[in-house]
Fold this sequence. Notes:
This protein is mostly helical. It is built from 18 helices and no strands. The chain has helices at 2-17, 28-47, 49-60, 65-83, 85-101, 107-122, 130-138, 143-169, 186-204, 208-222, 224-228, 232-241, 246-253, 262-276, 278-286, 292-302, 311-320, 324-348. Helix 5 runs parallel beside helix 17 (311-320) and helix 14 runs parallel beside helix 16 (292-302).
Amino acid sequence: MSLLVLLFLLLSILDHSLPRKSLGFIDYESLAMISSLLIVSRGMELSGIFSRFAHKTVMISGGSKFRLLSTMIIVAALSSAFVMNDTAIFIFIPAMMAISRISEIDLPEAVTLAIISSNIGSAISPIGNPQNIIIWRSYNLQFLKFTGLMSPYAILWLSLLLAFIWIKTRNKNLKTFQIPKIEIRKGLFYISASLLIVNVLLGELGLSFAGLVLTTVIMAIAELGVLLSFDVALLAIFALIFIDFNEISSLFFGKFFLETSLQKILIFSAILSQLVSNVPATVVLISQNVPWFPLAIGVNLGGTGMITGSLANFIGVRISGISLKDFHRYSLPYFLIALFLTVALMAIL
């Protein structure tokens, strides 16, 4: 807890020491929300709830590769909508690695599918990833409105991923293996789930920092290990990418987006995400007052292409040890096909 408070103080000092016309200010409300969700996510992870889901998934697969992989990516996607994609990566990539060691599943393929599914699932919810949190707060959107409008596109992306899995694994079976049953720490799970709801409500009221204080205090009392394992380095990275680049973006883009169609904003934000990652792309384009919806679609889809598209990609590849060549062999074709279908769907809707 002291490390977290110290980090916020250091960032505040640094922020106030910077000239306002150079880098602007750090979005502390979004940073506080991210911190709260990282703590809550870690609590859910330590409760064992996601490991139990993974265990159940393997047990109900019935030896079918398609059923196992499709169920795993659906669970990963749904989990990412509530605990953030970066946290889901820490949970499901090790699970995929363990399954690949005791079955005939190809590790690079399984890992890349899990990473893509985590990025897809996180797009559904305003709290699924950092860029959604920024968009949600910056445009003062309602939680359910955001989810309702993003869901058709997330369903499209997930359906495309399931089609890919079916093509690769149809009529293929797994080896027989056994996985020990995972016990759930129900108390920690209930506390974490409750804090998740509280932080969402406080976020909609603009009280994210109060949510961080409440979350930190309750976790310090309930399970200190959650705070001791808090990834401070990851939070520092988020702080750097939450800097307001309004001056820089105005210099480069000017009035470029004033008369740009929704489809062009979608494509531009998706491609920009490949170059600078989707969170910085979000910060830059928000400063240009682009419509939130094509921006949200573009930066979320942008996380599924190059490894640079999303921090979750870096984390997943690093944990699994797969090569960039193997990752891009699956991610780039998926991104290009998904981008074409997404633009078509937006034109229809």
